[in-house]
């Protein structure tokens, strides 16, 4: 009916929306894991960004040596930042895509490829894998998001 908001239960009856919820949760959990990995690297490398974080390593000048950057910590942070730059657009565009009535098989293909590309991208950052692995995995995920955006615009264009 026109003018009525869809109920959450109606959205969950939509297979494409359920698929979206599944893969959005997977990539969000993966992104959250990057925060824990960053914390792990900060603690094990004793490389902190804030003075209060060094309190357990001493006071004053002795603690200041732990206020530093570390290449491993920065690498994990760059991977996490890349997640933010790519997963956030996926969340918005993927939801609109799921609501645009795609075929379930096509929606699953989009969501699975995106999630797989982001997982490979993270592994390529953390291990590190040689290029072009990281670049290709980024490009595949980005292309999937663009593909979904194109489908949304094609389906629902009201310009």
Automatic annotation (TrEMBL):
Membrane spanning stretches: 20-41, 87-115
Source superkingdom: Eukaryota
Main location as per UniProt: endoplasmic reticulum
Subcellular location: Endoplasmic reticulum membrane; Mitochondrion outer membrane
Pfam families: MAPEG
Record keywords: Acetylation, Endoplasmic reticulum, Membrane, Mitochondrion, Mitochondrion outer membrane, Transferase, Transmembrane, Transmembrane helix
EC number: 2.5.1.18
Catalytic activity of the protein: RX + glutathione = an S-substituted glutathione + a halide anion + H(+)
One of the record's GO cellular component terms: mitochondrial outer membrane
Membrane topology summary: Multi-pass membrane protein
GO molecular function list: glutathione transferase activity
Subunit structure, as described in the record: Homotrimer; The trimer binds only one molecule of glutathione.
Function: Conjugation of reduced glutathione to a wide number of exogenous and endogenous hydrophobic electrophiles.
Family, similarity comment: Belongs to the MAPEG family.
Listed name of the protein: Microsomal glutathione S-transferase 1
Taxonomic placement: Eukaryota, Metazoa, Chordata, Craniata, Vertebrata
Gene name in the database record: Mgst1
């Amino acid at each position: 009916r026109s003018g009525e908001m869809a109920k959450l239960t109606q959205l969950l009856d939509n297979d494409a929306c359920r698929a979206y919820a599944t893969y959005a949760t997977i990539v969000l959990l993966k992104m959250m894991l990057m925060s824990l990995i960053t914390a792990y690297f900060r603690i094990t490398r004793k490389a902190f960004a804030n003075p209060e974080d060094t309190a357990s390593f001493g006071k004053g000048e002795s603690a200041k040596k732990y206020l530093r950057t570390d290449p491993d910590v920065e690498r994990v942070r760059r991977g996490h930042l890349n997640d933010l730059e790519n997963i956030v657009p996926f969340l918005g565009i993927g939801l609109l895509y799921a609501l645009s009535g795609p075929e379930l098989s096509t929606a699953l293909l989009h969501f699975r490829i995106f999630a797989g590309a982001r997982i490979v991208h993270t592994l390529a950052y953390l291990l590190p894998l040689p290029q072009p692995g990281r670049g290709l995995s980024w490009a595949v995920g980005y292309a999937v998001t663009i593909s979904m955006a194109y489908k949304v615009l094609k389906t629902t264009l009201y310009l």
